Amino acid sequence: MAEDATRLAALIKRGKVSSSELVARSLAKIKAENQTLNAVTHLRETAALKEAENALKTDAPFAGVPILIKGLGQSLKGEPDTASSKLLKANVATTTDNFMAGLQRAGFIILGETNAPEFGFKNVTDPELYGPTKSAWGNHEVSPGGSSGGSAAAVSADWVSLAAGNDGGGSIRIPASFSGLIGLKPTRGRVPAGPGAWRGWQGASINFGLTRSIRDTAQLLDSLQTVQLAAPFQTPLYSQGFLQTSQQPLPTEFTVGYTLESPVGTPVSKDAQQAVLDAVDFLKANGIRTVEMQNPLDGVKMMESYYIVNAGETAAMFDGIQASLGRAVTMDDMELMTWVIYQAGLLTRAQDYSHAFELWDAASYQMDQLYSQIDLFLTPTTATTAPRLDYELVGPEVTEQMRHVTDLNRQERLDLIYRFFERSLALSPFTQQANLTGQPAISLPTGMATNGLPLGIQFLARKGDEATLLQMGRLFEMNGMFKMLHETEQ
Fold first, then answer.
1. Which of 85, 147, 148, 179 is catalytic?
2. Among candidate residues 83, 27, 35, 16, the one with its CA nearest the CA of residue 51
3. Cα Rg for the chain, rounded, in angstroms?
4. What are the C-alpha distances in Å from 27 to residues 66, 112, 199, 350?
5. One of 70, 122, 134, 185 is an active-site residue; which one?
6. E strands in 295-384
7. Which of 39, 86, 416, 442 has the fewest CB within 10 Å, making it most exposed?
8. Residue 1 and residue 11: Cα distance in Å, rounded?
9. Residue 444, SS3?
């Protein structure tokens, strides 16, 4: 039986096990099994073991607990900072970013870095630099998802009790769904974003983690959130608050709205629909009102705006990379998908960018109004279970068009981005909107498909209302509704 990080921290504090023992155990598992899963790209074994010796010199909530970080958008000074890109394969972080500093203050011992797709553009993990990551599920024949796929594989395989990830369009929640884990994307701005920054992708991207218990999720949020009522660890808003409220019934007339339909009109598997319907039955059995409703947003327009911002941010990123390299980057420096997004970004206009944010603000207001009618909104997390490793995300005809992207005008380049993401979007059309509206959203591992693979359900809340998401997650957890590869002892 697996143990969560909160229990491990308590065992360390009581002297039942040492941090050094836990670190050594995790390192041994990784070394023995990583050749199969390819989830970890770098280990800092010597440094981690040395840090573990001093774990009890702090009263931090996760003191001495081993963790893996994502090898993308999470920088630890002196360690590789490659973004899974062959262009940056020799890059080493020169500073420790705000999120990493938060993990260290929380007491975690960082073992190393996990695999991710190049620059995080995919919902599977198969970078050319490191090769594909395999799921601990399905005889290792399916993807754990992406872009935090290496972290998801490591947690579901029980190498560590939790692992860091980040989420710019579902990159925590998608692998949580595909890998049978809990994945929270906090409210925009609540947790530090990219390297040295407090926001990423204009607030659409946010760092957090993949966990196996709601109490770990709550304690992690307490430890990392930027909004504090008092000094860190002195005001446990979530780790205590949700445990107290989870013992009480939800308010009278608590209402969950739900949908089975994709916001972009793509198919949703019967398994994914059934996972939501089973959750609806569970909610009704617990006295919670449910109502089927349509997503009020124009999903296609939202995705078009998402790709505009993605392209613009990518062009800005490569401006910095070129300045650092002292030369222009070429198509041979990166994967084809990255090259096309970059080329679209080069022609993105300031007004395109501004209009995209206007749409995001309007959508944020529209969703906030929705919560005057309901308390939470429920959807599938992903439309299907994890794809096979050999699943073709981009067809040959579109690939050929991508090779000639520089022959296209501004709108044609943006249209091409939508086309080459069509198959990816069909796998996971539900997660991106929360990134654009800024809402918190959580994927819970309650579904099990007929093929024996896990499926998550997603709850979305009003901005700032992580507490209700945690309370809902705890309700499912306490009633044995979670389906994980390793049952978690608490």
1. 147
2. 27
3. 21
4. 9, 9, 32, 48
5. 70
6. 376-380
7. 86
8. 15
9. strand
Would you say how long the chain is, in residues? 490
73: region left, alpha or beta (phi > 0 left; psi from -120 to 50 alpha): left
Among 204, 208, 209, smallest CA distance to 435 is for 204
Dihedral (Cα; 82, 317, 123, 210), 10-degree rounding:
60
Q: Which amino acid is it at 129?
A: L
Q: And the tokens for 433?
A: 């909107």
Residue-wise pLDDT tens digits, 320-376: 999 999 999 999 999 999 999 999 999 999 999 999 999 999 999 999 999 999 999
Catalytic residue among 84, 135, 171, 179: 171
114 forms bridges with which residues in the sheet? Answer: 40, 70
Residue 63's nearest CA partner among 124, 105, 21 is 105
- Give SS3 for 401: helix
pTM score of the predicted model: 0.96
Helix/strand/coil for 42? strand
Contact 139, 452 (CB under 8 A): no
Q: Which two tokens stand for residue 120?
A: 């995080």
Residues β-bridged to residue 289: 255
CA 291 – CA 337 distance, rounded (Å): 40
Q: Read off the pLDDT of residues 12-42 as tens digits, 9 standing for 90 and up.
A: 999 999 999 999 999 999 999 999 999 999 9
